[in-house]
Amino acid sequence: MYQLRSDDNISRQRGALIVLLIVMAGGYVLLSDLMGGTLLTPQVRDSYTLQTWNWLHGRMYIENGENYTWLELAIYQDRYYVSFPPVPSVLLIPWVVLCGMDVPSNLICGVYGLISAALAYEIMLVRGREERTAAFWALFTVWGSNMLWMTTDGSVWFQAQALNMLFCLAGVLAAFRGRRAWATTFLALAVGCRPLSAVFLPVFFILFVREDREKYSLRQAILSQWRCLIGPAVVAAGLMAYNFARFGNPLEFGHNYLPEFVQAEHGQFHISYLWSNLKQLLFGPVTIRDGQLSFSIYNGFMFYLANPLYLVVFVYGLRALLHRTERGGGLLLAGMALELLLLCMHRTLGGWQFGARYTCDMLPFALMYLALRDRPRARSWELAIGGLAVAFNLYGVMYMYLYG
Hints:
single chain; mainly alpha; two-stranded antiparallel sheet
């Protein structure tokens, strides 16, 4: 999508990346130790491994699903099914072949976090940041957000979100490198983890068309994007075929058959949920009572406190609006706003959690927006917010382990 910036200091850049990954890997090991040595422990809330195990035994449903009362399993025609999009289960196939049901899901989520950080780092390098600045933004994105907590825990919900971040960041990097077909394919795989990531497929398509309008007519610019449709079409066909084979509906992943949504008056998604959820994400308080922080661990609190990368985006977005300098980044802001509204139309905001975990799904595009800014080095106020973000989310990891 954009021109790459050449740099001869490849060894220095790779050295900074290695240091970043060593620090993060060491951090995961230390956090695991504080939480009782959980890094290699199978996660009982990992229904993706359970699904993969059943696949390898010739079943799309979960055998003896009634025994897994702690999992969110859909019930359809007296059979039990994993109610989440299946892409994370596909990646677990080699793990289940090697480990059976004893897959180290917590470790896998940590690996997803490391890969995501590496992708974020490469995104910033491609956009001309020097290596220390790129490492800062990568750490801010993955560890200065609720993703830090989620990448220490291999539960089904967190695997989906960690892998969604990985695929979305891969899509952003591919777009910046001009590999458009790969960019849309990665986004399509992200949809197979978190369906609302589909919001950004048309955003990318429009950005590609805009760029080509500098050389072609509108019709030619649109038609020239045909390669970008192949990957998403293949992924969509696979997802829809799987949905149809299980539920007779190509658009049904299974969540609508969860007991909590079957029994809900307005089902899984409804506009009546919008205002209360939006208020929770915008104004859900974090206060100090008797010298201690007080906040909700059900449906979270103000999303920009747990994921303050959005505060930086807000500052630059407001500045661009006031000076009327916004171009392609405006589409990214619109996509994030739309996904936020759609998330708030869901019956819950993710239940038990620290922060506002659903909003992590948009972080790759927040980083993309910031990568479009011509700021080779991070400013002091950005460094301060990023440092506080990492500290706050480290606190969140331990709070959820000790008190959650």
